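User: I'm putting together a small comparison set for a docking exercise, and I want a reference complex before I start. The sequence is below, and the ligand is nicotinamide-adenine-dinucleotide. Could you produce the 3D structure with the ligand included, as structure tokens?
Assistant: Of course. I'll restate your input first, then give the structure tokens for the complex.
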Amino acid sequence: MARSIAYLRPVANEPVFDYAPGSPERKELKETLTALKNEAPELPMWIGGERVETGRLVELQPPHERGHVLCHYHQGDETHINQAIDAALAAQKEWRRTPWEDRAAIFLKAADLISGPYRAKVNAIAMLGQSKNAFQSEIDAVCEFVDFLRYNAEFMTEIYEDQPSSPPGFWNRMEYRPLEGFVFAVPPFNFASIAGNLACAPALLGNTIVWKPSYQTNYIAQLYMEILHAAGLPPGVINLIYAPGRVAGGVALTHPDLAGVHFTGSTGTFQYMWRTIGENIVGYRSYPRIVGETGGKNFVLVHPSANAQEVVTALSRGAFEYQGQKCSAASRAYIPSNLWDKIKQGLLNDLSSFTMGSVENFGNFVNAVIDKAAFRRITGYIDKAEADGQEIIAGGNYDQSQGWFIEPTVIIAEDPKYTTMCEEIFGPVLTLYIYDEGRFDETLKLVDETSPYGLTGSIFATERSAIAYATSALEHAAGNFYINDKPTGAVVNQQPFGGARASGTNDKAGSKMNLYRWLSARSIKETFVPPTDYRYPFLSME
Ligand code: NAD
């Protein structure tokens, strides 16, 4: 029962550990990696707070070490999706009535557990499961997820505090109800933090969730579930299921109690979901909220006045960190002819110094791509570029003998609308178009019109007028726009993330805007002394 008006302490972004040689965090992480390599746990689903094992075990390997068994997960089917929906609906009544302080405390405690005692294990599992090096894992699986958990609690209180005015004699209130029904949370493989946030953000606000991670993140999702249980999450609030997307989607997307979809992944999958919901629209109890952050074809536009070395570093990091498997990764760049020689030399120097291999060797900047399907898709683009006679100035080789390794590859496109300038590849492939330094205006138009996406993009320039001009001309080309910075690395509460056009609904994860989608407000008006006569004064005769 509420007998106080509580405040949260101010939130700050989680500090990023650097894992430098000799640091205690590096030692603990290495020991945890070794320990996990000697286990191969069986991962259950969690439905209504119960472990669910089906006996249909699917093996997962580290993408960089195909010969090693990391874990097995229990594969579910339609029955389990239905059970998870029933459990979510059953948990709803009590959870939506749970005071916000208790809901917030659970997720804030989970954040502290990840930031503290679970940090090494969270990192080690994301490193082995997603082939992320220590830094990539730290900024994602630990820091970004902790930031989501803490800031969302703060955003929730800011939303709750937003109340209408009340003239004398009345009390108007806004009640921020959770949605009626369950939320279907469906994340991609590439960010553990997104996997966690898609379930936790709506749950924090009082919704109950059916959570179906991408199979490659089943291990880290299991650990997050363990942490949420340790933090006191009641049974049935988040139900973790392991099932192929089309199986889970087949049941959840057509269920009458579907209240919302919280999705991040490819544009094709999202369009399928939206279409399915549209086709079934007469069958739902409410109109399902559809939130989806999807693909991108992110650009770096370089003005002739730019600093070449800054561009080189932005491209080396922005295109190739985590093997280019970031929705925000730079994958097309427009280089003015006056800077090309310097940029080319700088890029070649950087790429020749990259080392590629296992995440267990901390010297490796580049690791493996996520799985066989990704390996085939990405290498298909490289092979096509070669067959089409495009110039490949770096990389171009790949090797699947130990893991799904693809060299960071740079293609020079003669045609600015060549395939790899337009389509999302989602791998370590960067395509450059060298434009005549006198044709900046035409190039701006090209950047805007080349792809259907609108996720992230950068302008590099030292001339302020060029920066202002590009910022305006590219208004709709990117939902996250960077000036003299790489187009990746958005931080919660600093650069709320999302794009429009084919890149999604732009509901800005890591901001209040996203949380509003999981609420259905109720206006409450209370009159203290209600009138007792229907007649208004104007009705009286003079
Ligand atoms: P994907 O679309 O293949 O899969 C995403 C999720 O959807 C997975 O959990 C998958 O199992 C599930 N799924 C697939 N078919 C389904 C169906 N019919 N019904 C229900 N669920 C289904 O995407 P991915 O390969 O995991 O991730 C890469 C994509 O995600 C890229 O396009 C990338 O740009 C995008 N992404 C976008 C953002 C963003 O914020 N905009 C962030 C990360 C990733």
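The pocket of nicotinamide-adenine-dinucleotide is lined by residues 186-191, 194, 212, 214, 245-246, 248-249, 264-266, 269, 272, 293-296, 327, 424, 426, 455, 497-498, 503-504 (CB under 6 Å). Residues 25-294+504-519 form a domain with the Aldehyde Dehydrogenase; Chain A, domain 1 fold (CATH 3.40.605.10).
User: Thanks, that's exactly what I needed.
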